[in-house]
Structures are given as structure tokens and as C-alpha cells.
Amino acid sequence: METVNEYDSPMYNEAVGQFDRVAKLMGLDDNVSDRLRVPQKALVVSFPFRHDTYTDVETIFGYRVQHLTTMGPTKGGIRYAPDVDLGEVSALAMFMTWKCAIVGVPFGGAKGGVRINPMELSRAELQRVTRRFTMEIINAIGPETDIPAPDLGTNEQVMAWLMDTYSQHVGHAVPAVVTGKPPALGGSVARREATGRGLMFLLPQAARAIDLNPEGATVAVHGFGNVGRYAALAGQQMGAKVVAVSDISGAIYNPDGLDTESVGKWVDENRYLEGYHYADFLDGNDVFALDVDVLVPAAIQNVIRKDNAPDVKAKLIIEGANNPTTLEADDMLRERGVLIVPDILANAGGVTVSYFEWVQDVQKYFWTENEVVARLREIMTRAFDDVHGIAEQEHVDMRTAALIKGIRRVADAKLVRGIFP
After folding, report:
1. Same fold: 40-174 with 194-346
2. pLDDT on residue 359
3. How many CB atoms lie within 10 A of CB 72?
4. I need a surface site. Which of 68, 83, 96, 168 has the fewest CB within 10 A?
5. Which of 117-131, 189-203, 257-271 comes out lowest in average pLDDT?
6. How far apart are CA 137 and CA 140, in angstroms?
7. Are 13 and 301 spatial neighbours (Cβ–Cβ below 8 Å)?
8. What stretch of H or E contains 341?
9. Which 8-state DSSP code applies to residue 117?
10. Which residue has the higher pLDDT, 54 or 364?
């Protein structure tokens, strides 16, 4: 089956390329393979957006894609970015399907996006965009059908507005319609830190797999948003030495180790890393070439490419962002013996704690932070062991092994349910 033109984009083609390669390796039935290459549902909307000036009304495009509805409700973030398109959202929805299956969360993959730059919006403008977009997709979402969450360019407040808009429409509060919302509205404690913390739970296991001592291992983190910041903080708390972090303003580097709490406070007060006094300031992309043991790409997709992969000196890459390594770079790094813990495993802590939040909202019974963290650690470490076991048994890399686990679980469910009618 050829790629459908509606979804055609570099990121979608890369996602399908990964799937095709693994499906062929698995000997997956062509009928199942063809069905999983394209989303089951894709909604494209456009709507008017009024700026604060009252003179400008802009037409905005938004998307909500549900890749797979076989496993239960669909789950996935909503991103606000100026370059969002249907192909990107579809690719991310596909990745979410595999991610949920890998950690055993009973969701299918979904993703949403609005093509707008949130950095250029006032708070009032951001709220108007969110509430109108929610109304445009309101028939596609719901606690038993599709549950949004934060992603690039969105946060707890955006989820609160989305939840409130949905609740106003149905006439009663529905906390379970979104995850990643503030605890005051039924959000789970430790949700904000979940992706970064879950990622670092895998560091000891991954380090042991390459005979690296995680205690004192040097770490560089590309990106200092929710994922990168809490990965850096968790890494330091676990005894690793975080020597560099970066954001859109550049990177800071201290070979003796950064005080990640101090860096976090600086960003809270000054928004960007630039100007932080206790480290050298570098170009953001210099992070990839630093002589460190562990590299954590935790910002955006396709940042490790064939042009900069030869500069990477890290022995271990743990992917915090979605699809940060291109297929060409992935091959080049693996040929050099670099262990890559793929995004669909490494950053699954976010959707895992989102699942916890949804369960708590549905049951109206909330867990302590210690319970959330303990259950997250258990699921993430078990998933790593499963994937690593498949990698050794099948003699494949971790990304392929993770996809084998995820695709196999989804294919089994498809086959058991059969075809309607």
C-alpha cells in the first residue's frame, strides 16, 4: 500500500518507513500491515481567530488524528506550533500507538495540533484559540473516546481551558476528558515531571547494558522544557553528572556539573538559559558534540541527523523528544556501537502517568506522589527489560525491538477483534 497523499510529509514518511521495516522483519500479515500504516480517523478544521487588537481576524488550521481505536480510547497531546501539519500529527499519533502498547497502557494513539506560534500570543489570545479549537473537535474527544494532553507549546493551563470548555458544553465537570491538567482540577501529582523522570529511571539499566557506571556518568540534555528539565533534575538526583543543558537561546556547559535546581530557578525568573552565570554559554547545537557519556535529546524531532551524527561522542542516547534521530543517523550511530533507547520507550513515562491520571479521574480516587512514582518506575523498568530481552533474542537494536513489542501487541488485538461487519 502506498503512502496516502493527505498525510505525506517527511515525518510521516519516516514513521511509516520505521513501521514497514519492522513489519517486514516480523513477517506481519500484509492485511494488518496496510491497516496500521494510516490513521483510522483524521479531523482537519479551520476557524477564525481574533487578535487582541480587534482589527485582525486570522484563519487558523487545527488537527486531531486518531491512529488506532482498537485498544480502547485514544490518547495523545495537542501541540501549538507554526509548522504543524497533518502529516506530522499523523506520525506522532502512530508513535503514540506503539508507545502505549509497549508499556501496556490500554489506549490507542492520537495527536492534535494547531498551526500557530504560542510565543506570539497573549494569555487572552491563547485562551480564545484553545476554547475555539476545543469546540471544533468536541465531537471527536471525550473520556471514553479520545483524551488530549499537553505537548509542544501547550501546558497545564491550556488543558484546564480545554477541560472547562468541554465541561461547559456537556453541562457538568468532566475532569477525565484531558490529562496533564492542574491538580486542582483532578490532575495527577507528578504528571509534569513524569516524562523526564520516567526517562531517567531507565539510565541505570541502559548503562549496565553497555558496562557504564551510571554513578557519576556525564550527561548532556538538549532541550530544557518539561522533559529536559526534569530529566536533568532526576539525573542529578540519581548521582549522574549533568554537565550541559540547552534551550532556544543556546546551551550552558560546566564540566564539573551543573546545579540543575539553580538552573531551573534561573529559567523560571529569566525565561531562557542565556545569562546564567555559573557555566559557559555555547551554541545550542554544540550539545551534540560534547564529550559526554549520555546524550538526552529532549526538544524536537530530527535534531540528530547524518550531518551531525559523526560528531556525537556519547556512548548512550536516551531519546526524550519524539523522533529526534533520523533513520540515517540511527544507522550511523549503531554502527559505532552507540546504544539508543528509543523515544517510544524512553519518553513513555508521560503517557503512563497520563493513564494514571485518567484512572484516578474516572474512579474519583487519587493517589499519593509516592504511589505514582513507584508505579511509574515499575512500568518503565519492566518495559525496558522486555524490550532489551527482545533485542537480545532477535539480535536487533532497541528501536526495532520496541517496535516489535508494540506492533505485535496491536496486531494481536486487531486479529482477535476481527473485521466489522
Report:
1. yes
2. 95
3. 15
4. 83
5. 189-203
6. 5
7. no
8. strand 339-341
9. -
10. 364
List residues bridging with 146 in a β-sheet: 74, 142
Residues 6+ apart with CB under 8 A from 59: 46, 47, 48, 49
**Could you tell me the residue ranges of all domains in the chain?**
40-174, 194-346
How far apart CA 298 and CA 226 sit, in angstroms, is: 9
Return the DSSP state at 140. T
pLDDT exceeds 70 at position 4: no
Domain 40-174 annotated CATH 3.40.50.10860: yes
Tell which wins on pLDDT, 224 or 174.
Answer: 174
Cβ-contact 219, 235 below 8 angstroms: yes
| CA pair distance 236, 397, nearest whole angstrom | 28
Give me 65's grid cell.
488524528
- Position 73: which residue type? P
pLDDT digits (tens, 9 = 90+) for 58-77: 999 999 999 999 999 999 99
> Which member of 75, 111, 181, 405 is catalytic?
111
- Residue 227 CA neighbour count, 13 Å, CB half: 27
With CA atoms as reference, report the closest residue to 247 among 269, 277, 267.
Answer: 267
Residue 285, all three cell numbers: 547545537
CB 234 within 8 A of CB 193: yes
Note the CATH architecture for domain 194-346: 3-Layer(aba) Sandwich (3.40)
Three state DSSP letters for 179-223: CCCCHHHCCCCCCCCHHHHHHHHCHHHHHHHCCCCCCCCEEEEEC
**Hey, what's the torsion of the CAs at 97, 359, 80, 263, to 10 degrees?**
-110
The 10s digit of each residue's pLDDT in 306-333 is 899 899 999 999 999 888 888 889 889 9
